[in-house]
Amino acid sequence: MRLRADLHVHTIYSGVGRxxxxxxxxxxxxPEAMVDIARTKxxxxxxxxxxxxxxxxxxxxxxAKQFDDIEVVVGEEVSTKDGEIIxxxxxxxxxxxxxxxxxxxxxxxxxxxxxxxHPFSFxxxxxxxxxxxxxxxxxxVLNGGHIDKYSNRMASEVxxxxxxxxxxxSSSDAHSASTFGYAWTEFEGNDANDLRKAILAQTTMxxxxxxxxxxAVVWSMKVVYKGFKMMLKAMFGRLRPDPDDPLVTSILRxxxxxxxxxxxxxxxxxxxxxxxxxxxxxxTWLNRRATVLLDHISETLEKIGPTEFH
Length: 310
Known about the structure:
This protein is of the alpha/beta class. It has 10 helices and 11 strands. Helix content is 41%, strand content 20%.
């Protein structure tokens, strides 16, 4: 039986991101909501991989126990000194800011699986050529959040150049329900344990496509608006500590002057038609940069990586 899995999904436990002085939630969706939307998308296995946290994954795993049509795997997208690494089937938190080698070692100590997300991204932290030096089980040859023309193609070309080195993975990298379900991995089996076996046997099948630009715009507007409301409440002392909402904790930690900058930036961003113009400008920049990199992709492929694997 062929099943579907998403190996890279975020929730509100991914915390607060930043763009210059602008602060915004990485995700505004709770773990339970991501389980619900995964079921509507007919996924069989959902891997919650928040930034430097396993709390959301643990909540999602417990919540999913009431359903017989989906399993949740506890994961984490770890911010290492060398780029981001995903650990799956974790039982304990892996701290950020370690070396990539130490991070992999700690994942292995838990019996976990190591995935390199968006390994050749030029706009988010990525391992790049470091993947050749690490004990990695799989690489994302299709990351649904990367709409540029270079990152996924480069990962796919590298994987083809070195067959048998890594399992090929496709993930949504969804930070919201609006960007969920466009990319996934298929595997033969009956449950999450068979997904693990398929990764180790390198029999996984990447499927799907990057998220459409209009869905990315919807996500950006939702997270900026959510962050705007929360920072506004914090400025007036109306945002109360809530141990069940990590976004509240994150916003309350933001210094006052940065809240002001964030509020002003959000007001500008949300003013029509700024979100669409900003997304168009971002897409244009990504594709221009990708075009430059694509012009040298053959040359780059000749230079990177070892000549053989043992």
